[in-house]
Amino acid sequence: MLRNYLKIAWRNLKKNKLYSLINMTGLATGMAVCIVIMLFVSYERSFDGFHTKNIYRLNEVQKFEGMVAPQNVALSMFPMGPTLQQEFPEVINFTRVRPNGKLPLQFGEKRVTLAHSAWADSTFFELFDFQLVSGDRTTALHEPNSLVLTERSAQLLFGADDALGKTIAHYGQDTLLLTVTGILENMPANSHLQFDGLISFNTFADPRLMGNWGGNWLTTYLELAAGTDIAALEKKFPAYLQAHMNEEQAKAYELFLQPLQDVHARSADITHDYLNHAKFDGNYTSIFSFIAIIVLVIAAINFVNLSSAKAASRAKEIGVRKAAGAKRPQLYLQFIGESVLLSFLALLLSLAFVALLLPYVNQLSQRQIGMPLWSRPGFLLLVAAGTVVVGILSGLYPAAYLSSFQPTKVLKGSPETGRKKFGFRNVLVVVQFSSAIFLIIATLFATQQLRYMQRSDPGFTREQIVTVPLDDKSYPKYEALKQQLLSNALITQVTASQQRLGNNLHQTGVRFHGEGPVRELASSQIIVDPDFLNVYQIQLIAGRDFHQDYASDNGKAFIINETLAKELLKDYPGKPVESLLGRHFGFGGVDSTAQIVGIAKDFNFNSLHHKIETLCLFNQRDWGFSELSVKINGARASDAIAHIQSTWNKLVPERDFEYQFLDDHFAELYRSDSTVSEIVGILTALSIFISCLGLFGLASFTAEQRVKEIGIRKVLGASVGSIVRLLSTGFVKLVLVAILIAVPLAWWAVSTWLQNFAYRIDIAWWIFAGAGLLAIIIALLTVSGQAIRAALANPVDSLRDE
C-alpha cells in the first residue's frame, strides 16, 4: 500500500509540473534560509562553549562625574583577582589578561611580528581549556619572561624545529629575552580570545601599577564554585569596593559578572572591550531566527494554498476512491505522504541552495561556517526531522480539506468543490504578504539607518587619510618621517596621535580650577601632534589651536570639546565658553600651570551608537604617539602610498610597513550593522520571491477555474483591461489588508530597534507608504502576467473545452 501511495504521489507531481515546481522551489528556498540561519546561530552560540570550568568575566559600571552616562566596561583593576579569591569562597580561581597588540620577535636572523599577543597570569591554563601540544600547562606561564606560542607562530619562527625551550628576543626600545615554554594549538575560530603569543604577566613587574586601586587596564576572569548565586554575590561587591577604596572612589564603580559564553554575543552595551574577537550582538541572531521562521512559514503557506486551490482537479479522483471504499485516514495518509515526499525533494534542492549561499554569508559575516552534514550526524537528523515536520504541518490542512469531499457531490461535478475554503486561502495570502511587507519596511529602515551612520558628518574629515601604526621603535623617528613625507607633493598633511578616532578613547581623571572649588571629573583624552586639528579639520569655536613654536604648549595646553565645556560650566549658567580659556586644567602628572587654550566643536570620535562624551586633547610630545595620520592626494593614492612605504622602509627598516585608510576603519565600526542590514535584505528578497511564487500559482489556478467565465465575458464584449482588472482586484485587496496589518507591527519593531542608536533617523511615513506601494506593484506584476494571458486566450477554445 505504501508503495502504491508513493507511486500515486510521484505521478501527481509529474502530472502537475508547474504546481510541483512552484511548491518545491518555494519550500526549498524556505528550507535553505532556515538551514543557513540555523548554522549561523549555532556557530554564534558555540563561542567559548569548549571550556569546561564555570568561568565569568568581571566587568565594571563606571559612573564618574563628567560622564554623559554611566558606562559598562570590560575592564577591571589589577588587585581585584587575588583579593576576590581571598575574600569570597565562591571565587575558586582567577586569571588576568591584557592585550599587548603586535609582538615583534627575533630568533637568530629571523624576524617575525605576531599580529596579536597578550599578557596573562600563570593561572590562565587552569581556567581555560586551550590545548597545549607541548609544554606543561601548569607551569607554562609561571616564570617571568615565559612565552607560549601557537603552532602557527612557532612554525613562522622555527619551521619544523622544536621550539620548546628556545630563547627569542622581543626587539623593542628595550630588548626583552623570552623563553618558549609552551606550544598551543591554533586558537579556535569560535573563541572570543584570539592571540598568537602569550607572555607571563609577572614579566611585567611594576608595583606602582599592580597595586593601584583605580587603574582599569586589564580583563579579569573568575572561576566560580558550581551553584553560585550570581545575584547574591554581586550584592556583596559594593562593600568589597568600599573596603579597598575611599568612599568617593567606591561610589564611581559597580561590578557585575558575565558568563563566559555571553561575552561574545551579550556585550553590545559594553565598551573598552578589547578582548572580544568577532563581537556580535546576540539579539540579532534571535531576529535572524525569527525571520527565517517567517520565510519558512511563507513557503508552507504556499503549499497549503496551492494544494487546496488544486483541489478541483483532484475532486473526481477522491470521489472515485471514496466510492471504492477508501477511508478518510487512508486519504489523510496519502496526501500527507505526498507533502512529505515533496518536502524531501525540496530538501535536496535546498542543500544545493545552501552550498551556494554559505560562501557569501561567510564573506559577509567574516565567519568560517561549514555545512556539517556528515561530521555531525545530529545535525543531519535534525534537518531530516524538521523536513518531516514541515511536510506534515504543510500537508495537514490540504489533507483534511481534500479528504472531506463527499463522493456523491464531486462525482456529479458540484461547483462548490474547490471554492468552499477560498476565504481561508485569502487569510493565508494576507499572512504571507503581511510578513513580506513587514520585512520590506524593516529592511528599508535598517538600510536608511546604516546609510545615515556611514554618511553623517562626524565633525571631522576622514577622507584620503592613511593611518600607519607607530611603536616604541618608530615613534622616536616621527619628526623625521613627517619632514620626509611632506617633501613630496603627493602628501598634503601629516600628524600623529596616541589613539585613533573611531575607537573607545582612554578615559582619565582631570582637575579643573574654576571660580569655585577644584572639580575632579572623568574625561576621554587623546595625545596629539600640534597639527592634529588642522589635518582632521576639527573646528574651534573659541580660543586657539596648538602651536609648534610655543614651548609652553608641550604638556601644558589643553583643547576641550563642547560637551566637556558645558560640563565645566554647568554650575555657572549663562557664562560663555570663552570664560574657560586660560583656566587651569590638567590631570595626574601634568603641571598645575596647564590651562585650557581652545574649545573644539563637538565631533563624533566614536561610532554613532554612542553619544559624544567629554573629551580633552593635549600635546605631550615626550609621551610618544601610536599612530601616524597622512593626508594624501586622492587622485594618485597608489603613488602616495608607495612614497609613504619607501620613506618608512628607509627610516624604520626594522619594522614592517602597515597602513589602513581611515574610511575602512570606520566601515569596520559599522560592520555588524552592515552585516545585519544585508542579511535582513537577503531574507526579505527571498520572502518576497516565495510570496510571489505562491501568488503566481494562485493566479494561474484562479484563471484556470474561471476560464469559462472569462470566455463568456469576452464573447459579450469585455475588454482585455476589464478582464485583467477582474482577476487582479481580489489579490490587490488582499495586499491592502496585509499593509494595514504589517504597518503598525513594523512601526513598533522599528521604533524599538532604533533605540539602540544614540543618533538615529526619524521614522518617516514615506518609508511605510513606499513599502506598501512596492508590495502592490510586486503583486500586480506577479498576477497580471497570468491575467493578461487568460484575457488574451481565444474564448472559442475555453467554451468548447469540457
UniProtKB/TrEMBL annotation:
<dbReference type="Pfam" id="PF12704">
    <property type="entry name" value="MacB_PCD"/>
</dbReference>
<feature type="domain" description="ABC3 transporter permease C-terminal">
    <location>
        <begin position="682"/>
        <end position="790"/>
    </location>
</feature>
<feature type="transmembrane region" description="Helical">
    <location>
        <begin position="21"/>
        <end position="43"/>
    </location>
</feature>
<keyword id="KW-0472">Membrane</keyword>
<dbReference type="GO" id="GO:0005886">
    <property type="term" value="C:plasma membrane"/>
</dbReference>
<feature type="domain" description="MacB-like periplasmic core">
    <location>
        <begin position="437"/>
        <end position="604"/>
    </location>
</feature>
<feature type="transmembrane region" description="Helical">
    <location>
        <begin position="378"/>
        <end position="402"/>
    </location>
</feature>
<keyword id="KW-1133">Transmembrane helix</keyword>
<dbReference type="Pfam" id="PF02687">
    <property type="entry name" value="FtsX"/>
</dbReference>
<keyword id="KW-1003">Cell membrane</keyword>
<feature type="transmembrane region" description="Helical">
    <location>
        <begin position="763"/>
        <end position="783"/>
    </location>
</feature>
<feature type="transmembrane region" description="Helical">
    <location>
        <begin position="287"/>
        <end position="306"/>
    </location>
</feature>
<keyword id="KW-0812">Transmembrane</keyword>
<dbReference type="InterPro" id="IPR025857">
    <property type="entry name" value="MacB_PCD"/>
</dbReference>
<feature type="transmembrane region" description="Helical">
    <location>
        <begin position="679"/>
        <end position="703"/>
    </location>
</feature>
<protein>
    <submittedName>
        <fullName>Putative ABC transport system permease protein</fullName>
    </submittedName>
</protein>
<dbReference type="InterPro" id="IPR003838">
    <property type="entry name" value="ABC3_permease_C"/>
</dbReference>
<dbReference type="InterPro" id="IPR050250">
    <property type="entry name" value="Macrolide_Exporter_MacB"/>
</dbReference>
<feature type="transmembrane region" description="Helical">
    <location>
        <begin position="715"/>
        <end position="743"/>
    </location>
</feature>
<feature type="transmembrane region" description="Helical">
    <location>
        <begin position="331"/>
        <end position="358"/>
    </location>
</feature>
<feature type="transmembrane region" description="Helical">
    <location>
        <begin position="423"/>
        <end position="446"/>
    </location>
</feature>
<feature type="domain" description="MacB-like periplasmic core">
    <location>
        <begin position="20"/>
        <end position="237"/>
    </location>
</feature>
<feature type="domain" description="ABC3 transporter permease C-terminal">
    <location>
        <begin position="290"/>
        <end position="407"/>
    </location>
</feature>
<dbReference type="GO" id="GO:0022857">
    <property type="term" value="F:transmembrane transporter activity"/>
</dbReference>
